[in-house]
Amino acid sequence: MDHKDKIKIAVTVASLAVISIFFTTQYRRRRKLKCPPSSCYLQTEPKPQHNFKRVLADNSYSPFKHAKNEKSSGGHPYEAEITALLEKPPPEFKFVTDDLKLNESFVWVRSKLQLEELAITLSRETVFAVDTEQHSLRSFLGFTALIQISTEKEDYLIDTMALHDEMSILHPVFSDPGICKVFHGADNDVLWLQRDFCLYVVNLFDTAKACEVLSKPQKSLAYLLETYCNVTTNKLLQREDWRQRPLPPEMLQYAQTDAHYLLYIAKCLIDELKQQETENSSRPNDKFNFVLEASRRSNMVCLQLYTKEFESYPGEAVASAILYRQLNGQGDVSSISCKTQFQELVRRLCTWRDLMARVHDESLRFVLSEQAIVALADKVPATATDICFTIAQADLDVDSVNFNSCLPSPSPVVCSHLGDLHNLIQDKLGNLDDIFQAILHKCLGPNGSCPLSVFNYTILAKCNLKLIPQRNRLVYKQNGWVKNSKQFARKASRELFVQKFSCKAPVYHNCRIYANDGRLLCYCDRRKLDWYIHRNLAKLVDDDPPAIMLLFEPKGRPEDEGNDFYIQSKKNICVGCGEGNHYLRYRIIPSCYRMHFPEHLKSHRSHDIVLLCVDCHEVAHAAAEKYKKQIAAEFGIPLFIHKVVDLKQAQDRPSSSMKTEETGVSPLQLRTAAMALLRHGPRMPTVRREELRQIVMRYYGGREISEEDLERALLVGMSPRERRRLGKKRGVYLKHSTCVDVSKEEHNNFSGGTEKSATVGATEANNLDGLLATETEPFGEKEIHHFATVMDDDISNTGFDQVTSSTNNKNRNSIGSEVSDTKDDYDGNDDDVYENRSVTNGTVDLLYPTYDGSGSPKHNSKLSLLGHGPHGKQVVDYLLQEYGDDGIRQFCQRWRQVFVEAIHPSFLPAGWDVQHSGRREFGEFSVYNPAKKTVAAASMS
Ligand code: AMP
Ligand code: ZN
Ligand code: MN
Fold first, then answer.
1. Model confidence over 253-299: pLDDT tens digits?
2. CA of 247 to the centre of ligand 3 (A)
3. Taking the C-alpha atoms of 933, 934, 938 and 941 in order, what is their torsion angle to the nearest 10 degrees?
4. Taking the CA atoms of the chain, what radius of gyration do you get in angstroms?
5. How far is the CA of 234 from the centre of ligand 1 (A)?
6. Which atom of ligand 1 is nearest to the CA of 242?
């Protein structure tokens, strides 16, 4: 047996092992009924980039969107600033030190706060050096894993994976024409910074360009380091895996070195450039400004824009290249006789690989090597085992020469989707037109095998773009898998929604609280136990699951009331259908009413908060929305209100005569329409544009609307707090601004304004709508409403943070979504309200004039919170006035009834009932107050 045969056997055994593991896990998974059939390696091996909340460049086949700027319509957002720099040399910067030694220390930046501090530090500099490290093997488009920044005083290494969603903090310093950024060979870095962080470099000095102008023999950084600094570096480290954390010391040192000496090198090169000028100054007429030329060439680099590459069908470019090589005699394909089949297979494999790489966010090479594609197309292996063998063999042949050998072959992508690959090769998937959709459907469709992520879900959502030829569009009718792409996309969005917003940690901890006589009082979460323990009000009596015993006599006992609801152990499942994989908290009494209940009628307990899976949640939510309309009609109190522009109109329209549906526009509808018009207006089909315009016009009382109206409409229905958040996120503080001011600021932001204060906006303009538009664009209004209102309603108090910030990921999953037993839940909202009250009045009033007949707007900051304007408050006021407390209690019962009728819940805890009275105060423990020597109701706030 020769060496090659031995390898063959080893490879076959290895592949068989892989396959058998694959089938066993498949089998095991199938037996679990609740889990969707999952075969993809990513199910058990999540990738670091999955922690990114937002990506600017996703793997869809749609073009990259750059930040916008009024002045440079469609082009580079800083075209004007950069062009100005091409004309005159940038102001000189002076170096304080000549000290070249590399400090052993550097600053490792990995928190938002540190990054903010760095931004402030850098804003005070006139020059700093930058370098970036990329990761490209396990990513489709690649991403920046590290940014090194050096000032004369300090070296900073920024963990851009931890801070991926916060990097826009550096936007102002990077685009500040007054601060020079020194790079070496910035061509790629400039594009990468745009791609990942929407950072645009303005005012660049590229030491490689300086080398060009000076006609240096070499222009590599290694050469410059050796020549000017007497430092040698191991450039092989460049190709290391920069995702790893912690980074090994030699990689940290390499990274630090790459930026540390750049300022000194730049200084040396600038001196040489100046010297060249004086040497050539004997001929003043053709005086060549060397410094200006180096700076000009550098800033030309800044003018480049990142773009995604496009092909007329996925994988086409590579397929053509492979075929060109093979058919022109450069390859060694044996079966020339089967030319057509070979070509067809190469194309199919390239398409498959392209799609797989995008779906899994892997590089093409990682999915399947070109030599493996050629081998597969040539040999047309008949079985799954043969496929694995062919790939492994092809890679072994080439990698023994190359140094890629550390890559797994066949890749995990191939292994976990071997069935598809087999069908593809055996021509069982129909023509190429269908393959694309079939695979996409299998991976990301309703019961898709592969995890949805921010990188891949838009492949579905945006797939029916013009970029993909008609024949490849995602509207597949024959097989009836998918009725249309909208439905398809909606499914994907739902999955992602589940992933992002459902409670990741169990909501109920089922910790127990016993009275001092040993009787069980209730179940609750861990936080509540800790609260009592820390105040020495209870002692721990059990560990797993934890239980405490109170050291004081509680005010009431659950059994006193003949209701054992509070001593039921609550299960972490949907109370509707029992689903245990994903659930959200659902508030049975809509917050828009409950928030206006008098304090003593708010039951600060879990009775009216239940867990529902996303599907039941949607059903319950729809029923609640419908019932709100019924209430609106019954009470004659409209759900939504017009913005009335002039007083005369207001007087013409007394509130009681306002009909709910016909006259009103929901703030959400309005915001979505305005957002869509602002972002896509000119490119929209006329009919759709008109439809949306009508919605906005209806809000403004039917008059013509301007761009400014659209921008103002974006803020409608947001609480002042949300608006401030939004403002902060875009780098603008809206705290005391009036409606008009707000719209001005907005305007700046949307155009990616160039003033320092507004520059952060560009990214966020993209991102804010990440919340609304990206999620909603492809879907029908019902879904938009459900998903967005869930965000508004269910997670609004902590939710805006959760959705948009990345830093507290873990917190969100545990603490943030947990509490539900006591008043905390609702109190989040109340806090908002109190805060609103103290912060601003004017804004709310302007957006929500109330119609009390007097024509003067009432001050009421509770109005806008959940997007229903004054409806909730008016209903509650009416009930209290007509029926007193009982009116509210009955109102609550009606809502429970609505809930029960909509869901027919089979998994409600025993003791839950529609009648549940709000009078009993047991759920809230009485607590001994040592200061007052009294017993008072416990509250954890
Ligand atoms: P540098 O500009 O040398 O800091 O390189 C920045 C990034 O570009 C590295 O982190 C690599 O990901 C990538 N890169 C540059 N040159 C190469 C190369 N020859 N091979 C692989 N990756 C490279
Ligand atoms: Zn997969
Ligand atoms: Mn580097």
1. 999 999 999 999 999 999 999 888 777 666 555 567 899 999 999 99
2. 14
3. -50
4. 32
5. 12
6. 10
